[in-house]
TrEMBL record:
Reaction(s) the record says it catalyses: L-aspartate + 2-oxoglutarate = oxaloacetate + L-glutamate
Gene3D superfamilies named among the record's database cross-references: Type I PLP-dependent aspartate aminotransferase-like (Major domain)
GO MF entries: L-aspartate:2-oxoglutarate aminotransferase activity; pyridoxal phosphate binding
Similarity-based family: Belongs to the class-I pyridoxal-phosphate-dependent aminotransferase family.
EC class: transferase
PANTHER family: ASPARTATE AMINOTRANSFERASE
Record protein name field: Aminotransferase
GO biological process, one term: amino acid metabolic process
Superkingdom of origin: Bacteria
Keywords noted in UniProt: Aminotransferase, Pyridoxal phosphate, Transferase
CDD domains recorded: AAT_like (cd00609)
InterPro entries reported in the protein's UniProt record: Aminotransferase_I/II_large (IPR004839), AspAT/PAT-like (IPR050596), NHTrfase_class1_PyrdxlP-BS (IPR004838), PyrdxlP-dep_Trfase (IPR015424), PyrdxlP-dep_Trfase_major (IPR015421)
Residue ranges of domain Aminotransferase class I/classII large in the record: 35-381
């Protein structure tokens, strides 16, 4: 038996990220404009890094609260009061080592070998892979796509459910499509989950990146305290903290000890000086977030205008998040196209094949960058389309 054959089947089957494959191919290209990853181009602002640096210099480098320092959990409560109009005690928050860690902890708590978890596809690929690593079976339900945009048929979710279904993973606003559920759709999903006694893992990381009026609709607008919902989130997107790897779970107070135990046996808690930076992000960062959302809105409109004018790009203007998920007439193999775009346009995009069923023909462009770069990238892509 070879070394790799002695590994668990789930570990051996973990897929290479289709996004990272393109990144590794093109990351060293001179002058390449990287729009493949889900992050902006601004470093973490000083009011956050200064708070972390002060804590680091002050010796906050020891073991800390497994569920997160009280100051951060209280700051999360204040954040929800401001943006969601809901008052929650700090006991409803668990600090995690990234949004991905929050998802892993949720899956560990809910699903194991033979269990099924349903997710909406096209989807951020990490959830599918994380569910499979836990031994569960990820079950995709494709969003509908038409001239009217992306939509969720809740009856398709119901049809996919079995006696083994333990959870529904709902990401809205969506990465990669930009689909944003309205309250009617959220209510239908919640009613279904209640009727089947199934948990919802609600990934609302892009709630504030919403191009309507204010934040996006949330399960929090319609849920009761006893509903089976785990809210997973991250500091990465709103506050330019992708490299920090700090996130959180909002859950029922009765589940705190369970999640504290899961934290203990995974990463044993987030560094305290990093949590001080997270407190500053929540308490001082509303203005910064608002600026980033407006900047992203301008970039969205710019790239949609340039690519739309080619007559070959097909897309729905995203309602939320900061991605354009588009097809190009005549292009069916998005993976090959992504590599070709690196070679010929010197622009990095993510292939739709990385996002599962329903995404195969699409390309994802992250427009959360400064406008001159977005404009240059869109112009390069427009030229590539003329010759592709």
């Amino acid at each position: 038996m070879s070394l790799i054959e002695s590994f668990r089947a789930e570990a051996r089957a973990a897929p290479e990220s289709g996004i990272v494959a393109v990144v590794n191919y093109g990351r060293l290209r001179d002058g390449l404009i990287p729009l493949w990853a889900g992050e902006g181009d601004l470093p973490t602002p000083a009011f956050i890094t200064d708070a972390a640096s002060k804590a680091l210099a002050g010796g906050e480098t020891f073991y800390t609260w497994q569920r997160g320092i009280p100051d951060l959990r209280q700051a999360l409560a204040r954040y929800y009061a401001r943006h969601f109009g809901k008052t929650f005690p700090e006991e409803q928050f668990i600090v995690t080592g990234s949004g991905m860690h929050a998802i892993q902890m949720s899956l560990t708590a809910l699903a194991g070998a033979g269990d099924e978890v349903i997710y909406l596809s096209p989807a951020w690929p990490n959830f599918d892979a994380a569910a499979a690593l836990s031994g569960a079976v990820p079950v995709p339900v494709t969003l509908d796509h038409s001239g009217n945009g992306w939509s969720c048929d809740v009856e398709k979710i119901a049809a996919a459910m079995t006696s083994r279904t333990k959870a529904l993973f709902i990401n809205t606003p969506s990465n990669p499509t930009g689909w944003t559920a309205d309250h009617e759709t959220l209510q239908a999903i919640l009613d279904l989950a209640r009727a089947r006694n199934v948990w919802i893992i609600a990934d609302e990381i892009y709630s504030l990146f919403h191009y309507g009026h204010g934040r996006a609709p949330s399960f929090l607008d319609i849920a009761t305290e006893e509903d089976r919902i785990l809210f997973v989130n991250s500091f990465s997107k709103n506050w330019s903290m992708t490299g920090w790897r700090v996130g959180w779970i909002k859950t029922h107070p009765s589940l705190q000890q369970v999640f504290e135990n899961l934290i203990q046996y995974s990463n044993s808690g987030v560094a305290q000086f990093m949590q001080r930076g997270a407190v500053a992000a929540l308490d001082e960062g509303d203005g910064f977030v608002a600026e980033q959302v407006e900047r992203a809105r301008q970039a969205r409109d710019l790239v949609c205008g340039i690519l739309g004018a080619t007559g070959r790009a097909r897309f729905t203007v995203p309602q939320g998040a900061f991605y354009l998920f588009f097809t190009v007439d005549g292009i069916t193999d998005s993976r090959s196209a992504a590599f070709d775009i690196v070679d010929k346009a010197n622009v990095g995009l993510a292939p739709g094949t990385a996002f599962g069923p329903g995404g195969e023909a699409f390309l994802r462009l992250c427009f959360h960058r400064r406008l001159d770069q977005v404009e240059e990238a869109a112009d390069r892509l427009a030229k590539w389309m003329k010759s592709a």
